[in-house]
TrEMBL record:
Provenance organism: Saprospira grandis (strain Lewin)
Keyword match Transport: no
UniProt xrefs under SMART domains: HATPase_c (SM00387)
Residues noted as binding ATP in the record, renumbered to the chain: E31, N35, D76, M81, T165, R336
Alphabetically ordered keywords of this record: ATP-binding, Chaperone, Cytoplasm, Nucleotide-binding, Stress response
Domain Histidine kinase/HSP90-like ATPase: 24-175
SUPFAM superfamilies, A to Z: ATPase domain of HSP90 chaperone/DNA topoisomerase II/histidine kinase, Ribosomal protein S5 domain 2-like
NCBIfam families: PRK05218.1
Entry-linked PANTHER family: HEAT SHOCK PROTEIN 90 FAMILY MEMBER
Name this polypeptide is given: Chaperone protein HtpG
Keyword ATP-binding (UniProt): yes
Alphabetized GO MF terms: ATP binding; ATP hydrolysis activity; ATP-dependent protein folding chaperone; unfolded protein binding
Length: 619
């Protein structure tokens, strides 16, 4: 037996490891299993070259939890290590100095360097670590390395006949949860689900169909105990697209998200120059939801799970997608600010954005009906990309759809052609009318249709921003909500109605309604409209409404006062009747009808109105 000191440039390296990795100390298992995978992969490479004596079957990694002994063992059948290799790889911690280490990682909130600490991450949870190993090399002796979380170690010869390495963790009392099957199963599912070497965690019972003596015999089964393999060593994203069917893609989505609805579409990423990237991104059914769908893209490096926080690697709108990105070229041991400025990451971001846009355009061109059928479930994603990513917006303008209140869909260019004759105002501006609450605004929509206008439906959480983006992108274009003004004012033409009331009588009408309404936040506005139009109409100024909506979307308080216009049609016979009778009660009744039309009567006000209406009917 020999004793010695581990070669580090500080005597306090172990307290530093434990302190600065403590917030994410479960990561140790990923590190140790990843090392076992490397050892196994190296063995297969050497075996293919004929450099490994004897037969090499598919190596397997075993994870063994022992709650009684408070130990966790990671055992592989890889290349193992000689005594010299143990001295080289386990006794030298590759940090230039503790000071540089702390300076480099002090801003990281959870995982430090991802794979940088490797084997020594075991000491985050273990008071003692033993490594039992036998190299594949002929004549090698088995050795055991042991360390109790300080610079001292022991190295001795042992009896071991099977090639490979066992790492045995004697867990701290406060970390004995890592000897529990359920805890380890959860970590293996999270970090090791798609590693390229089979990983066994215990065993399970399986029904095996027995051979039939005759074809007509009923099948018989036998229960057998089989190894519990917890991973899929060759996931779909590591295969070529031509190897996969539609059902294969859907089955893999179900493997990633077992309780989710089937995806709408998917995009298979596969490039090896100028960077290495594979993956599959799925388009989920979003409907009008955004926040609950985020953080469903999993980032891997050579099939090792890293994180589902990928917003520094993909544009923010792509975080609404689901799936997997795998790239060894993404630097994982640096700060987020470095990631954002890294040239390789920028190329990867641009590539993913282009692939997603190209896939959507291809589906639109080849399967427009299918694309339109799924528009409701993916329009938020496409609009979000159109708003936030200029490169995506340029491509998306070809397949961006607008939907009117009748459910008909058209591209931006198609819709412009449809409405330009009827909805161009006297100043040459093209006016797009829209509703955000189709049922509540139905009266306004029907009035617009009677005038020969079309009304779009914008009722998603992102449409306020989307409308602003369209106004910036489309020349001589303005979007106006259908209930923001009277129909004659929504799209102003050259012809104007003459009022039947002179200035003096108009002032009398205004005074009657001001008394009936008695609300300082309602602006009385007389307009000469068609006698066939509504006698009264409540509208909200477009500018004020947009200011309020933007404030709410940006997390501000809804403290802006509610201002409304009460548009009085001075040419309507009912208005003339009220003027002649000076009947403020009838004026109030008309105002309440207008409120009812806008959905503004609620609670006690609505009850009172209904009771009054019933009494009018009795009379």
């Amino acid at each position: 037996m020999q004793k010695g000191n581990i070669s580090v440039q500080t005597e306090n390296i172990f307290p530093i490891i434990k302190k600065f990795l403590y917030s994410d100390h479960e990561i140790f298992l990923r590190e140790l299993v990843a090392n076992a995978v490397d050892a196994s992969s190296k063995l297969l490479t050497l075996a293919n070259r004929g450099e490994v004596p004897g037969k090499v079957d598919n190596p397997r990694i075993q994870i063994i939890a022992n709650p009684e002994a408070k130990t966790l063992t990671i055992k592989d059948q890889g290349i193992g290590m000689t005594e010299e290799e143990v001295m080289k790889y386990l006794n030298q911690v590759a940090f230039s100095s503790a000071k540089e280490f702390l300076e480099q990682y002090q801003d990281e909130a959870s995982i430090i360097g991802h794979f940088g600490l490797g084997f020594y991450s075991a000491f985050m949870v273990a008071k003692k670590v033993e490594v039992r190993t036998l190299s594949y090399k002929e004549g090698a002796k088995a050795v055991q390395w042991s360390c109790e979380g300080d610079p001292e170690y022991t190295l001795e010869d042992i009896e071991k006949t099977d090639r490979g390495t066992e790492v045995i963790l004697y867990l701290n009392d406060e970390d004995d949860e890592f000897a529990q099957d359920a805890r380890i199963q959860g970590l293996l599912d999270k970090y090791c689900k798609f590693l390229p070497i089979e990983i066994q965690f215990g065993s399970r019972e399986e029904q095996i169909e027995l051979p039939k003596e005759n074809e007509e015999d009923e099948p018989t089964y036998e229960t057998k105990t089989v190894p519990n393999i917890i991973n899929n060593p060759r996931p779909a994203w590591k295969k070529q697209p031509n190897e996969l069917s539609e059902e294969d893609y859907k089955a893999f989505y179900n493997e990633l998200y077992p309780t989710s609805e089937p995806p709408l579409f998917w995009v298979h990423l596969n490039i090896d120059y100028p960077f290495d990237l594979t993956g599959i991104l799925y388009f989920p059914k979003l409907g009008n939801q955004m926040e609950v769908q985020r953080n469903k893209i999993q980032l891997y490096a050579n099939q090792v799970y890293v994180t589902d926080e990928v917003k520094e690697i993909v544009p923010e709108f792509l975080t609404l997608l689901h799936g997997v990105i795998d790239s060894p070229d993404i630097p994982l041991n640096v700060s987020r600010s470095y990631l954002q400025s890294d040239r390789n990451v920028k190329k990867i971001t641009d590539y993913i954005t282009k692939k997603v846009a190209d896939k959507l355009h291809e589906i639109f061109r080849k399967e427009r009906q299918t694309f339109e059928e799924k528009w409701e479930n993916m329009n938020i994603f496409i609009k979000y990309g159109y708003i936030s990513e200029d490169k995506f917006a340029k491509k998306a303008s070809k397949f961006m759809l607008l939907q009117n209140t009748e459910g008909k869909l058209a591209t931006l260019e198609e819709y412009k052609e449809q409405i330009k004759e009827q909805q161009t105002d006297k100043n040459g501006q093209l006016i797009y009318l829209y509703a955000n609450q189709v049922e509540a605004q139905d009266a306004y929509i029907q009035t617009a249709k009677q005038a020969g206008y079309d009304v779009l439906q914008f009722d998603s959480v992102i449409d306020t921003h989307f409308i602003q983006k369209l106004e910036q992108e489309l020349e001589n274009t303005r979007f106006v909500r259908v209930d923001s003004d009277s129909i004659d004012k929504l799209i102003q033409k050259d012809e104007e109605q003459e009022s039947v009331l002179n200035e003096e009588r108009s002032e009398e009408v205004e005074e009657i309604f001001r008394t009936a309404v008695s609300n300082s936040q309602v602006n009385i506005q007389l307009e000469a409209l068609s006698p066939d139009s509504f006698p009264l109409m409540i509208t909200r100024p477009e500018f004020m409404r947009r200011m309020q909506e933007m404030s709410m979307l940006q997390g501000g308080n809804n403290n802006m006062p509610e201002f409304f216009n009460l548009v009085v049609n001075s040419n309507h016979p009912l208005i003339s009747s009220i003027l002649e009778s000076k009947d403020a009660d009838k004026a109030k009744q008309l105002y309440q009808l207008a409120q009812l039309q806008q959905g503004m009567l609620k609670g006690a006000d609505l009850t009172n109105f209904v009771q009054q209406a019933l009494s009018w009917m009795d009379k």
